[in-house]
């Protein structure tokens, strides 16, 4: 359970957003800027490129069908996964994050997806995830940039797009700063994007490209400082301790068509190290008013394929972390894994729109109203009722 101070923290966040917006609008205070933005909370968005297997990361071991469907993978508490709530268990490679789960600074949302369906293309799936719309027709900007256009006092350093690849969700009219760490792989983002597009219809080649990227960035090993994902997290934390309010970057390596146990484990190491680097780098005062959202373009099939991996699916999961998060729980409407409950007879059925949690978190952090979030930031989204993601 959360300590009794959680209500005070929630009140502080709400008051920070309210007071900041009020000051920005006041004719008696001209001009006013609260650390380059009229809100004090921080938002970090991480794109998990490649389609993270939510059923292996947040394992529904309590579902009677799970053991049979996942017979080819070692899963559940009996194989080292950490029990979360008696139904879900966390993959062993995310065990370093369990202290955050116990303090309520880590949570998950299961069975969510973008509106993207059926073709299961990384190229289109990632574009739609970052566009935040129902379709890609005529869309030239990203949802995180559109959020910034709805807030006063935004400057270039208010938001950072960090990393070696293009972050489309921060593309748009609002000013955004960019930073790229040293890269071991001598390939431009444009060339990598082209290779991704060419290989997307060949699962074996695409998985090989994903693994090559992972090995190049990690020097062939998981763990260790000086790697790009650690440098990115350190840089993001340093900026967020100052004027920056929004940071976004991506983590590759989630395309697990074969040898999933090895590939997914390495990717989860990087995700765990990233979250813990942010936690340490932000420091307690800033961490307490930070929300981290990690999203992926789609989930993966419920059944294991013949090469010890999983193929492109539909329903997935998102990770939430930070002191502003009401964690220690798995959110979402669980659909079940019975044959009749699956999407197209093969995938986890999505019961929620992945954009809705992001919208509710943005509303709580910045004070934006639901009308603007549903019409401008995420056109066509129905946010539904407040699930209580934030304190």
Automatic annotation (TrEMBL):
Identify the PROSITE patterns for this entry.
TAT
Matches recorded under Pfam families:
DUF1501 (PF07394)
Report the PANTHER family cross-referenced here. Answer: BLL7424 PROTEIN, DUF1501 DOMAIN-CONTAINING PROTEIN
- For this entry, the protein name equals DUF1501 domain-containing protein
Query: What is the organism of origin for this protein?
Result: Sedimentitalea xiamensis
């Amino acid at each position: 359970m959360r300590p009794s101070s959680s209500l005070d923290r929630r009140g502080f966040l709400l008051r920070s957003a309210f007071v900041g917006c009020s000051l920005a609008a006041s004719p008696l205070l001209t001009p006013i800027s609260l650390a380059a933005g009229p809100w004090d909370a921080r938002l970090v968005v991480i794109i998990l490129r490649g389609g993270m297997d939510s059923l292996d990361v947040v394992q529904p071991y309590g579902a009677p069908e799970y053991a049979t469907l996942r017979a080819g993978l070692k899963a559940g508490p009996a194989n080292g996964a950490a029990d979360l709530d008696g139904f879900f268990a966390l993959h062993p490679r995310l065990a370093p994050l369990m202290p955050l789960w116990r303090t309520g600074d880590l949570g998950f949302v299961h069975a969510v997806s973008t509106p993207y369906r059926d073709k299961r293309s990384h190229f289109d799936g990632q574009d739609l995830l970052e566009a935040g719309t129902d379709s890609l027709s005529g869309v030239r900007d990203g949802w995180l940039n559109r959020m910034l256009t709805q807030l006063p006092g935004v400057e270039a350093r208010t938001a950072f797009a960090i990393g070696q690849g293009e972050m489309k969700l921060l593309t748009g009219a609002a000013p955004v700063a960019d930073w790229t760490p040293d890269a071991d792989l001598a390939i431009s983002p444009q060339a990598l994007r082209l290779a991704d597009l060419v290989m997307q219809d060949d699962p074996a080649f695409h998985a090989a490209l994903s693994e090559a990227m992972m090995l190049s960035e990690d020097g062939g090993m998981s763990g260790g400082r000086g790697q790009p994902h650690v440098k990115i997290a350190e840089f993001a934390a340093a900026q967020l301790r100052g004027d920056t309010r929004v940071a976004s970057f991506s983590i590759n390596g989630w395309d697990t068509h074969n040898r999933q146990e090895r590939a997914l484990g390495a990717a989860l190491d990087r995700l765990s190290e990233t979250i813990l680097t942010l936690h340490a780098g932000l420091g307690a005062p800033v961490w307490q008013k930070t929300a981290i959202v990690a999203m992926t373009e789609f989930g993966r099939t419920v059944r294991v394929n013949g090469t010890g991996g999983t193929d492109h699916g539909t329903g997935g999961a998102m990770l939430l972390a930070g002191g502003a998060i009401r964690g220690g729980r798995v959110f979402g409407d669980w659909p079940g894994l019975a044959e009749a409950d699956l999407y197209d007879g093969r995938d986890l059925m999505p019961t929620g729109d992945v954009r809705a949690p992001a919208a509710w978190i943005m509303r709580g952090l910045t004070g934006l109203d639901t009308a603007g979030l549903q019409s401008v930031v995420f056109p066509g989204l129905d946010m539904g009722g407040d699930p209580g993601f934030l304190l």
